[in-house]
Amino acid sequence: MNRILTVGLVGLLLVGCTFDSTKPAPSDRDNTAVNERDADDRTVTPMDQSNASADIDQVAAIRKAVLDTEDLSVNGRNVKIITDGGKVVLRGPVASSTERDAIARIAGKVAGTGNVTNELEVEKD
């Protein structure tokens, strides 16, 4: 009985699936160069985030302020905010230099201007 049920469900799934070989497969962004660049020991990544409560609170405050800012792109809202010892590193793509500067200002208000390293990358301007 279970075998019949399984075969029936698989058959229904296959009937519901369509494949159009005339359409090109969606292309994924190739992050190889970025990943190779970030593989060295000098690049700060999210794995470098401190677990100290003050650093976690600082990231939360910056993230909240970023999310409360109107007119930021999806990428801008999702930048990496990495904090260790009160020092903040901002990483990731943003839509414009205006957006990059706005996020850096937000981080500077929370962490202090001299405590922010802005590594945000403008996708286009």
UniProtKB/TrEMBL annotation:
Pfam family, one: BON
Start and end residues of each BON domain: 54-124
Region annotation (Disordered) ranges: 21-52
Record bears the keyword Iron-sulfur: no
Biased amino acid composition, Basic and acidic residues: 26-43
Keyword Glycosyltransferase in annotation: no
This protein's UniProt keywords: Lipoprotein
Protein name: Outer membrane lipoprotein
Organism placement in taxonomy: Bacteria, Pseudomonadati, Planctomycetota, Planctomycetia, Pirellulales
